[in-house]
Amino acid sequence: MVRAGARRAGTRRNRPFWVELPLLVGIALILALLIKTFLVQAFSIPSESMQNTLQKGDRVLVDKLTPWFGSEPERGEVVVFHDPDGWLDGVAVDPPNTVQKVLSFIGVMPSAEEKDLIKRVIGVGGDTVECAGDGPVKVNGKALDEPYVFPGNTPCSNDDKGTFKVTVPQGKLWVMGDHRQASADSRYHSDDRNKGMVPVDEVVGRAVVIAWPAGRWNTLPVPATFSEN
Question: Is-annotated flag, keyword Flavoprotein (predicted)?
């Protein structure tokens, strides 16, 4: 004799997939949003200012988790940061289409509406950074060995902004692009409210890997020269 409870269990029907699909999509979107907010996010390289380390159009993955544990950017790291004070004023931004909006929401691609930049950290709070003529760049009196600088560039620029000596305040960063003669970095914003420095709390995270194109996949380690300063 079959019990009524067993009979009911045996005849229970699974819910149709189309009923469960919205729930699965919702869970996937929530997980993607959490990953984008707290773990990692894609960022598209918008210009040639970081050549040859990064090419325009490269996609990098940005570590957003480390700052949540109180870690601050270090010398030599490539970081993504919010526009600190009008650095991108006048830069045209193409309005995103619907697909771009969806992909940027879940962190697969960056938002075209976000005003973020990417540069290399040269000096942190307390450092003295200087350069004159063709260089080299010096941090706390020690010359940097910079093989990542774009071929044919000099470490500094022979213009009124290319010669400088600054002391970085606590909580700020001095950043420069690897393509020194094509990067509007800290050198060229010394008249803004931060004197060209980037506040640490404007940093989104550290770029850790080139994820796309596939043929350019590579990590972005800190150059050895920064361990000597």
Answer: no
